[in-house]
User: Fold this.
Amino acid sequence: MTTPVLELTNISKRFGEGEARVDALSAVSLRVVRGELVALIGPSGSGKSTLVSIAGALLTPSEGRLYLNGEDITDSPGQQRARLRLREIGFIFQGSNLISYLTGREQLLFIADLIGLPNGDARRQAYRLLDELGMARRADHYPEELSGGERQRIAIARALMNDPALILADEPTASLDSRRGRAVVELLAREVHERDKAAVLVTHDERLLDLCDRVVHIADGRLTGMPVGAGSAAM
Ligand SMILES: Nc1ncnc2c1ncn2[C@@H]1O[C@H](COP(=O)(O)OP(=O)(O)OP(=O)(O)O)[C@@H](O)[C@H]1O
Ligand SMILES: [Mg+2]
Assistant:
C-alpha cells in the first residue's frame, strides 16, 4: 500500500482550561495520499483551521499523532518542523499573509531563495505560476496595490513555489468571485493530479466539491464523513 503523504491518527486539540476550555478537535483521523485532493467542509468554528494547522505542523495536538510521508513528526523539534514546512508543505492561509515590502514576484522568489532553487529555475517557476493564476501582469505590484483576490492569488502561487508534497489550503477562494474561485481550485486540482501531490482544501463553497476527489465533513471537531445535514441530525 502507498504511504500517505499526510496521516493524522486520533488527533484531539483542546484550547484553554476549566470553563474556558474548547475541544476544537476530538479523535480526528485522516489520511491523504499522492494525487488526492480532499475537501474539508464544515460550519464556522467546527475546527477546520485547527485541523489544517496541526496537519502542517504549525500547532501541536493535545493527543494523537501526525505523520508526514510516513514519518512521525508529532514530537519533532521546532527547527525540524520549520524545515519540513519549507520543503514539503505549501500553505495557503485564510488571510493571504503577504510580506508588505515585496512585490508579487518577489514573494515567490523569496521562497525560492530560502530553499536554494537556482535563479533561472526560480524565475521560470514563478512566471509559470503567476501566469496560470492570471497574475503575470500584476506581478510587480506590492500587496497594498492589489485587490484582496489578487493578493490571494499571489499567496497561492507562493504556496506552490517550493513544489510541495502536501498543499494545505484554508479557504483560498473566500475573497474571490465564483469564476476566479473555481479557476483557483481547478489549478489546485491540476497541481495535485499532474504533479502527484496531496492536498486538503478547506471550503464553504459546495459548488467546488466536484473538483475534489473526496469530501470530508467536520462538525464540532469531529469528522462525520456524511453529507451536511445527515451528520448533524444523527448527533
Ligand atoms: N488559539 C485558540 N484559543 C482558544 N480557542 C481557539 C483557538 N483557536 C481556535 N479556537 C476555537 O476552536 C474552535 C475551532 O476553531 P477553528 O478556527 O479551527 O474553526 P474553523 O472551522 O476554521 O472556523 P471558520 O470557518 O470560522 O474559519 C472554535 O471554537 C475556536 O473559537
Ligand atoms: Mg478557519
Summary: The chain has one domain: 6-234. The two ends are 34 Å apart (CA to CA).
